[in-house]
Structures are given as structure tokens and as C-alpha cells.
Amino acid sequence: MGGGWAIVVHGGAGVDPNLPVERQEDAKRLLTRCLNLGISALRSSLPAIDVVELVVKELESDPLFNSGRGSALTEKGTVEMEASIMDGPKRRCGAVSGLTTVKNPISLARLVMDKSPHSYLAFSGAEEFARQQGVELVDNEYFITEQNVGMLKLAKEANTILFDYRIPETCNALVESPLQMNGLPISIYAPETVGCVVVDKQGRCAAGTSTGGLMNKMTGRIGDSPLIGAGTYASHLCGVSCTGEGEAIIRGTLAREVGAVMEYKGLDLQDAVDFVIKERLDEGKAGIIAVSRNGEVACGFNTTGMFRGCATEDGFMEVGIWE
Questions:
Q1: When comparing pLDDT for 35 and 141, which is higher?
Q2: 193 a catalytic residue
Q3: Which residues 6+ apart lie within 8 Å of 205 measured at CB?
């Protein structure tokens, strides 16, 4: 596939194989809705960066995935969100961490890029900037779902950092799962970070990633999602968003690495994604979505699954979870 616009979205890598079918269907419906939103924006010639923000906002506003409303809870029972966005043409970028009242973290990341002299603002400084910019603020309670309060309680009982899995089970059942992510049973793990990558008709690439992080994480923990080059990257060649074990993605500078092997090894998009998943994760588990300036789309993951969907101008559209 080449030429024309393209869009890929993700809702996180590392999916419990026993995820209830109705939850799988909910996820597919949400991904499809977000793709359709992006498609109509691209058809009306919105620039790639605007489409990324629009789609990630939609993903943040739905409590299904772990970003914005429905974010994982810290050890203190609060939500701390983070996000980043990058515009390929001039490698402009914005990132935010430690947000507790900003309704749409991706939009604040965009404002950091467009309206501040900096690329990254965090915690009280990011919140203050949000107030100055007049973005929509809500109480921290808005982001907290009853389901996640139950998860945190289980997490504390199991005395471990639980990755948000959304399927209440007894802690005993968790130990029997042979599939693991970050040393934890897969039934606990489903980070469900959200991301979107877009190339528009003009061949401009952009990428954005947003998350609530890990269940029972230490307050102040920063993952890969807001880190440019790790969770998010865009250049003249491609747009990339990653999801999975944040610490492994950071060590492998995963998103930038896709652009680097395209540039320096001359690999095409899918080969670049496959190479990075295979060669740059060591023991880590992650998933990658990407677009190229030629309108190609690519996905890759070494986890049990990744919530994802893609569409291209020539009419191709696909939404999936498993291999």
C-alpha cells in the first residue's frame, strides 16, 4: 500500500487471552469509531497533527482504555496521566506528565508544542500551564472508575504493581497463568495505553500517545508514553506510537528506532517495525503502530495481542486484537 492518507490506532498491547468476548467487541467498536472519525477528518483535508489529536481525545474520553477517563490508579488511589504528540515535518513535539485534572492530556501536549517555548511540562507546572491556556479541567474523581478502585484493592492485596486488567479475579487464580508481562500474570496485565499515527494527503506524518500508566504505580512514575523517541516519534519518513512494558520501550528508544532503521538501513515500514520488535526489546514486551510518508501502515507486537485498527485512502480497513 502506498500513496494517499493512512491512519492506525491502538488501545494497548498485551491482552489476556481469556478477555470476555463482549469486552473484545466493545474494544473493536471503539477502535472502529475512532478510525471513522479520523477517516472523515482526513477526507476533509485536516492536517495529520490535527487528526492525531482529535482521535486520541476520543480514545481518552472513553473509559474503556487506560488513558484519560478510566486511567489506572497510583498507589495513593489517584490518577496521574501523561501524553505526547509529535509533528513529523519539522519534528515539533509536546509532552506532559503528572496530570491530575486535565480532561484531555493529548490536547495539553499539543499546546505545549504550539504555545510554549518548551517540549515537556510535568506535574504542578503542567497543571498551571493548563489553567493559563484555559483547557477543560475536571476533578480527579472524573477519571476514576469503580472498576479501577476494585483493581487497586486487589493490587494492594497482591502487593505488586498490577497492570490494569479490568477483569476482577481472585488473586490465587492470577498465579496460575503461564503467560506473563513484566513478570506478572497476563490476566493482570493490559496496559491499554492509547495511540494514533497518521499520514495525510500531503505526506505529513504525525503521532500521539496517551496513558494513565500502571495500576498501583509509585506516584511520580513516568513511563514511555510521554517520552519523545520512546513512546512517540514522527519525522519526514514516518509516525510511530508504542505500547507495552514502558521500561523496556524506554531502554530501546523504540519509536525513534523505527525511523532510524528506515533512514539508515533503508528498510521499508513493516520491515522496520518487525526489526525493532525483534532486535530492540531484549526480554521486553511491546507493540508498535506506524505510518510512512508513502501512505503505508504497519503494526508489530511480541505480546499475546494488541488492540489496533488501521485504514488507508484506497479503502482498506481492519480492526483486530490477536495475531
A1: 35
A2: yes
A3: 48, 88, 197, 198, 199, 234, 235, 236, 237, 238, 239, 291, 292, 293
Distance CA 216, CA 139 (A): 20
Between 151 and 186, residue with greater pLDDT: 151
Q: Cα–Cα distance between 212 and 64 in angstroms, integer?
A: 12
Confidence of residue 178 (pLDDT cuts 50, 70, 90): low
pLDDT in tens, 2-45: 579 999 999 999 888 888 899 899 999 999 999 999 999 999 99
Structure confidence by residue, pLDDT tens digits, 96-116: 999 999 999 999 999 999 999
Select which of 100, 160, 193, 243 is catalytic. 193
